[in-house]
Amino acid sequence: MQKAKPLQPGETVGIAAPSGCVRREDLLRGVAEIRKLGFQVRYDDSLFARHQYFAGSHRQRAESLMNLFTDPGVKAIICARGGYGCQYLLELLDPETLRAHPKIFVGYSDVTVLLQFLENQCGLVCFHGPMVAKELARGEPCYVRENLLSCLTGRRSGPRLHAPGSLTLQPGTARGRLTGGCLSLLAASLGTPYELQSQDRILFLEDINAKPYQVDRMLMQLKLAGKLQGVRAFIFGEMFDCVPAGQAPAMPEIVTGLLKEFQVPIWYGLPSGHTSTGCLTLPFGVEVRLDAGQRWLQFEEAAVAEG
């Protein structure tokens, strides 16, 4: 896996809008937060373009993203928000050019599509973490500043991540490359050239506003597609607002019932992506170690390059 150079104080962060329309006031609050972190910010008014429910036409969004990757003055890219639209970009992006210009790339939700593309089609480490017009616009404690900076600037393996209130659904330890993202986007990728690659990985899954039976259905879809066989451990996010109605079983019960046959560690409640607070940054494509019983995750290597 190829890694980008670490982000240095004063360097420039470019903002991408590969999915839904962006509200200017939200973005400007996030821009101010990035500057508080010690970085310059680059974006232009094309970020606020509108085409149906997208932030501009598909070609415009793809070209803007490619330009950020090839711009030598931009050292990291953070997405403005999710929504919908990244799938339209996949056939418009050039993997060879992206491989030749590795950059820090951060996002979640619909951006899961691009995280998987960068990891699997381009061989690049990328980051499931806070976005500009979302968590960064709201500031701490909506994201974990120390964790974000450690991932983007640190040349060493990071500290262990813990999650107060998280649950051990199946104890055990595991080691492997971390991957995953938003469950509904990963399920939607099946049968395409860009589908989830999960063999021998530690698989992180999260979502928002999904009913328990919908989560059950998406996990079953991954199972029937063979994507859960060979996974070394499962980590679930907060599963924000995925609450049962009436007498429906709670989400941890559904997860345990469907995954216990795989006899691997299962940890539930690590806040990354859609969270109520404290969104963590997780590097995809790096070796990690997990202890589901003790409820911690350790990055075994730096997420950025040595030099």
Word description of this protein:
- This protein has 307 residues and is of the alpha/beta class.
- The protein has two domains: 12-140, Rossmann fold, CATH 3.40.50.10740; 161-299, 3-Layer(bba) Sandwich (Glucose Oxidase, domain 1), CATH 3.50.30.60.
- It is 27% helix and 20% strand.
- The protein contains nine helices and 14 strands.
- It has helices at 24-36, 58-70, 95-100, 112-120, 135-138, 145-153, 183-188, 212-224, 251-259, and strands at 12-16, 40-42, 74-79, 104-107, 126-128, 161-162, 167-170, 173-182, 201-206, 233-236, 266-268, 282-284, 287-291, 296-299.
- The chain has an eight-stranded mixed beta sheet with strand order 6-14-13-8-9-10-11-7.
- The protein starts with 11 loop residues before the first strand and ends in an 8-residue tail after the last strand.
- How far is it from the N-terminal to the C-terminal residue, by CA? 15 Å
CATH class of the largest domain: Alpha Beta
Give the strand order, joined by hyphens, for the main sheet: 6-14-13-8-9-10-11-7
H-E order? EHEHEHEHEHHEEEHEHEHEEEE
Query: Could you say which overall geometry the principal axes of the C-alpha atoms support?
Result: globular
Helical residue percent?
A: 25-40%
User: Which structural class do you get from the secondary structure elements?
Assistant: alpha/beta
Would you count the extended β strands for me?
14
Pick out the low-confidence regions: none
